[in-house]
Amino acid sequence: MILAAVKTVLREPIYWLKRLISEKDYRIYLSLQVKLAGIPRFTECRLKLYEWDLVIPDAASFITTYAEIFVEQIYKIRFEEEAPYILDLGANIGLSVLYLKRLYPKARITAFEADSRIFSCLEQNIKGNGYSDVLLVNKAVWHENATLQFCSEGGDGGRVAWNGDTSTVEVQAQDIRELLAGRTVDFLKMDIEGAEDLVLQASREYLPAVRKIFVEYHSRAGEHQQLDKIISVLAGAGFRLHLQSAFSSPSPFVERRVHSGYDLQMNIFGWREDGL
Asked: Measured between alpha carbons, how far is residue 189 from residues 13, 88, 251, 253 in Å?
């Protein structure tokens, strides 16, 4: 981690120096890389971050997630109301919840996390830091109520099991339609490791009542891609879309990289230009 931080700063020294001087969260990010360097993957540790005492099950995935949420601020968002309703699907250890509560202390947040070990960290990081008003649910979100086989990765990559996975556990899953029916959702965040296509298809008739949406799209290597269907569902629900690469190959015609079984990950942001 230390070597990666040094290479990053040396690559474009003026740009990174400006960030180092002007951005507190970026300075914290660099210090975290040093502080957590050498901790083996999937080894639980504890950390003081801002005013929070955090339990971290995997230092490497924590560093990556912290950079996305607090440094790059992918969930930076504006609401007209003080207490928006936020549905966080795939909350992991709760960094997204903590970030959004910093922005909107009165936000009403319901957060789902399927992995029981990760959920234990989520509970400690949210309830243990005084956020008693956040509803935490130890379930997956799916296109029906079901019991699913789940592959627990130990960090931020837990997912519904694929054919051929041998080490799995059972988790309970809740139908997305039960969560969306009859209510307005100010922000729907969906990071559910490849299940987004089925869940969004099931959500189709309820999406007009969602004001802003974030979907992390996962393209499984060797399988038919679902990006076109996801964009069609979101565009059909009236969202204006913006796409960012979360993981991709620099030269995909000649070399396609695969990370955790995926050959592409995209962050999809959706909002309404009609002011809904």
From this structure: 34, 5, 30, 32
Residue 178 placed within a domain = yes
Find tokens 């959500």 and name the residue: 203
Domain total of the chain: 1
Region 190-206: what's the mean pLDDT? 96
Q: Which pLDDT band, with edges at 50, 70 and 90, does 4 fall under? A: low
Structural domain span for residue 172 = 80-271
Query: pLDDT (tens digit, 9 = 90+) per residue, 112-140?
Result: 999 999 999 999 999 999 999 999 999 99
CATH number at residue 176: 3.40.50.150
Domain annotation covers residue 214? yes
Say how many C-beta atoms besides its own lie within 10 A of residue 257's C-beta. 14
Is position 30 within any domain?
Answer: no
Cα of first residue to Cα of last residue in the chain, in angstroms, is: 43
* Whole-structure pTM value: 0.92
Tokens read off for 142: 């799916």
pLDDT band at 18 (very low <50, low <70, confident <90, very high): confident
Quick check: is 94 in a domain? Answer: yes
DSSP states along 10-63: HHSHHHHHHHHHH-HHHHHHHHHHHHTTTPPTT--EEEEETTEEEEES-HHHHH
pLDDT > 70: percent of the chain: 95
